[in-house]
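User: I'm preparing a small set of examples for a lab meeting where we compare how different chains pack in three dimensions. I only have the primary sequence for this one, and I'd like the structure in token form so I can line it up with the others. Please keep the answer compact; I'll paste it straight into my notes.
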Amino acid sequence: MSAGKKVKNVAKTTKGKVKETTGKAVGNESLEAKGRGEQAMGDAKQAAQKAKDALKH
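Assistant: Understood. Below is the structure token output for the 57-residue chain.
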């Protein structure tokens, strides 16, 4: 996985975790759900990149 893409995906996952935690803290279910969605998207992209890399080698 290219370093740039890995950083983007990890950042998206981290950003989602922050949103989820903030949403829980302030009782905002919408923000919490958006955070979980971003985490899932970041994790999925990381998995896809790892699969691509495995096929290349």
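A couple of notes for your slides: The chain has a mean pLDDT of 91. The longest helix spans residues 29-56.

User: Perfect, thanks.
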